[in-house]
Write a structure and sequence with these properties.
Elements lengths: L18 E3 L1 E5 L6 E6 L8 E3 L7 E5 L6 E5 L11 E4 L2 E4 L3 H11 L19 H5 L3 H15 L3
Antiparallel strand pairs: 1-4, 2-3, 3-5, 5-6, 7-8
The protein binds zinc ion.
The site of zinc ion has 9 residues, from loops.
Length: 153
């Protein structure tokens, strides 16, 4: 499962906090194009939310390329590969979606947007990400990924 959502200690996910993104960008296992997972009950206006009943919720998988649609339980989601992930100096940097990545880029480049809708997730960010992205070229790799994947939001 290397590179999947549950790919070990290099991630900053804390599942026990019951805090979930509304939208997760993933790679379609069927055609390898960008696809989306959307929480079935979360209002479209919010980016993330607390769901203490998450085990009973469904997520909708949809790929606009191969038009595969599927209902998934949270337990099935870690098997999918995140779209927004990149290895920089042996460190896997990832985000739930391009908006989340936008916040991370700001933070890592010293231009944090304090009232960003993803600032709640600041505490989840791996400290290694700061030391591994000191060069402008590293930040630019993240920006390139964000630009490419913002299109698919
Ligand atoms: Zn597909």
């Amino acid at each position: 499962m290397n590179g999947s959502i549950l790919s070990g200690g290099s991630t900053h996910i804390r599942y026990q906090h019951y805090h979930f993104p509304r939208l997760i960008q993933v790679v379609c296992p069927n055609c390898l194009n960008p696809a989306k997972l959307t929480h079935c009950d979360a209002p479209e206006a919010i980016a993330h939310f607390i769901d203490t009943d998450f085990e009973n919720r469904n997520w909708i998988f949809f790929c606009t390329n191969c038009v595969k649609r599927e209902t998934k339980n949270w337990t099935e989601i870690p098997a999918l590969k995140l779209l927004n992930k990149i290895e920089i100096r042996q460190e896997l940097i990832w985000a739930w979606n391009a908006d989340h990545l936008d916040y991370i880029i700001g933070l890592l480049s010293g231009n944090e947007i304090k009232d960003h809708k993803w600032s709640f997730f600041k505490a989840y960010i791996n400290k290694n990400w700061f030391t591994k992205t000191k060069n402008i070229s590293d930040i630019n790799k993240l920006k390139t990924m964000r630009e490419a994947n913002s299109f698919h939001l």
